[in-house]
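Hey, does this match?
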Amino acid sequence: MTALSLQLTVADQQCAKLRHLLEEEFDALRTRNLDTFESLQPVKAALLADLATAVEEQCRQLASAEADPAVLTRWEGFRARMLECRDLHRRNEILILRKRDAIESALATLVGGFDPTSGVDVYDRLGRTNRPRRRNAYAQA
């Protein structure tokens, strides 16, 4: 087994760990378990750093020498799995952004900052929509 093939095996194992970690991260986000989510972040950062250095070294070796076709096939498989991890990371990011937007919207509604472009109708205690009124509309025209 060549050094490049061995490095690919290690990188594949790290990629599998990253995929599993991203799935755990999604489950933690979905169930709002922030302690678990926070505990996964240092592990994810370390895995990504290890993968970055491994990929950099592998790219250098693949570019400098004639690689075995089997190694090139494994490299393409590794790249495909890393793209899947990227998509999982984006899925988690979208979930975080949606939850943040929902929280910001709820806070804005509670504080009283009504955004007429939000598409959400807020009702006052008399049951009327709480739309900001333009005072002196005729004077401004």
Observations:
- Residues 123 and 129 are 4 Å apart (CA to CA).
- The two ends are 81 Å apart (CA to CA).
- The mean pLDDT is 84.
